[in-house]
Design a protein that fits this description.
mainly alpha; about 500 residues; Growth Hormone, Chain: A
């Protein structure tokens, strides 16, 4: 049990780090005298560092041993969190955020491989349910805690409160995880594969984050990032397919359940965080909702996820993973359908219901998404498998969130232009002269057009969410279950 708790705490560091700082951005911006454009790097740098360093998990585990790698990573995370809170400039904060993310992102795959190897048969389903609470719940709870601490103390404490959690994880690792010797024969890290993959991810993330602002391919920067992404991606795949020991062994995808499980997990990564980002932002922009209300909404999703995970702990091993996948993604699809029908008058209760649905869906999905890809995978390759599993979800989430906001901002501009075309002095049902005589009439009209355009932009992103959720169902039908090495033995 202590082993499971320790690995869950290690995973909690990863999940919390992704979202806890988001609520403190306004305070950080004021304290460090940064522009909104500069502040986006606090999030972007974190996402890039996370995605880039996850593939190092397998090499670190083989080179230093799983226990030692987790101890070093947790210690580095705690020190980086302290330095983030002490930062006096934006550049300093971004640098420490990169180190913070780089320290913890490989740990999730390593900790997950320990859980998978230590718990077999029916015990694996229950252990995975408990472990995955460290993945699914912290990103939902962290903004609530971060918002409260930021409001009551200061933005620095958003990082300081991570240090005690890291200390508990470190004590747990020292107490419960058995020392394991590094592999006798460890290949040197595949630097060509690592650097080409890192450059590909960085270019794509920068392209998505800055494309709308820079008018896409009319900008030399965006054009350069696009072609560099293609070149580095070609180098990565060509190198990985021809090298004997590549950074990511693409032959793993020849395993049917693994390939399907990773594809399903990628779709989940796209849907996982999106409602937590878009719905609260929509509420704040269109209804000026207070931070407390946003926190309550996020809290409701957290409660729903916790309830679903508790159900999985008790009964999850009795259900077919394919049924659970259909159930979890079905809740997301229904939530997406409801979001497509949102308008300016949608109540907070309706939005709460949608977040509860997605929270339940998340809780039901973690266990089957772990069981399916690793069902026919050899134990010796579990670290490699979990590294790819976490890497795909990470880039799926970061790229998809960026794509969702591209849809929102781009269609917002288009919709505003189309709506404003219909406001002119020659409309029969509209008295333009009366409007001019009204106090602030043009301002009121412009504000209303802006609000309607923003609303349509969010609805378009919800349509993207809905259609994305449908991709997964044909993949579920192709899963082979029960797997060849399935056993109910403890």
């Amino acid at each position: 049990m202590w082993l499971l708790i320790s690995c869950t705490l290690v995973t909690t560091l990863f999940g919390t780090n992704l979202t806890i700082a988001n609520v403190s951005l306004p305070q950080i911006q004021g304290a460090l005298s940064a522009s909104p454009d500069q502040m986006s790097w606090v999030i972007t740098a974190n996402l890039i560092a996370t995605a880039v360093t996850i593939p190092l998990a397998s090499w670190l585990a083989n080179r230093f041993g799983r226990r030692r790698s987790m101890i070093f990573g947790v210690t580095g995370f705690a020190l980086a969190s302290l330095m983030c809170g002490l930062s006096s400039s934006l550049a300093e904060l971004i640098a420490w955020r990169v180190i913070q993310s780089a320290s913890c992102s490989p740990l999730m795959a390593i900790a997950q491989s320990v859980v998978i190897d230590e718990f077999t048969g029916e015990r694996r389903s229950r252990a995975t349910s408990i472990y995955m609470m460290g993945v699914g719940i912290p990103p939902s709870v962290a903004p609530i805690i971060g918002g409260y601490v930021c409001e009551e103390l200061s933005w620095s404490w958003v990082f300081y409160i991570l240090i005690p959690v890291a200390a508990l994880a470190l004590l747990g690792l020292l107490k419960s995880v058995k020392p394991d010797a590094p592999s006798k024969k460890v290949d040197n890290i595949d630097w060509i594969g690592f650097l080409s993959l890192a450059a590909t991810i960085a270019c794509i993330q920068l392209l998505l984050d800055r494309g709308e602002r820079e008018e896409w391919f009319s900008s030399l920067e965006i054009t350069a990032e696009f072609f560099l992404a293609l070149i580095f991606a070609w180098i990565f795949f060509a190198h990985s397919l021809t090298r004997k020991k590549p950074l990511i062994d693409l032959t793993l995808f020849l395993n049917r359940n693994f390939a399907l499980g990773i594809a399903i997990h990628c779709v989940f990564g796209m849907l996982f965080v999106t409602p937590l980002v878009t719905i609260p932002t929509m509420l704040q922009q269109l209804s000026n909702a207070p931070d407390f209300l946003v926190g309550v909404l996020i809290g409701l999703r957290f409660i729903a996820t916790a309830v679903a995970m508790l159900i999985m702990i008790i009964w999850g091993n009795k259900w077919d993973p394919r049924f659970l996948l259909v159930l979890g993604f079905g809740l997301h699809t229904y939530a997406g359908f409801l979001m497509c029908n949102f308008d300016m008058n949608t109540s907070v209760q309706d939005m709460s219901f949608v977040l509860i649905l997605t929270g339940l869906g998340v809780g039901f999905l973690w266990v089957p998404m772990t069981l399916v890809p690793f069902s026919n995978l050899e134990a010796a390759r579990s670290v490699e498998g979990t590294m790819i599993w976490n890497f795909i979800r990470s880039i799926g989430s970061s790229f998809y969130i960026s794509a969702s906001f591209i849809v929102i901002f781009h269609t917002q501009k288009i919709n505003y232009a189309q709506l404003s075309e219909n406001i002119h002095p020659y409309l029969d049902f509209f008295s333009f002269n009366s409007l001019l005589e009204m106090s602030g009439g043009l301002t009121i009209t412009a504000n209303e057009l802006t609000q309607q355009a923003i609303n349509i932009g969010y609805i378009n992103s919800f349509y993207l969410f809905f259609w994305t959720s449908l991709i997964v169902y044909p993949l579920i039908l192709l899963i082979s279950w029960p797997p060849k090495n399935f056993s109910r033995a403890n």
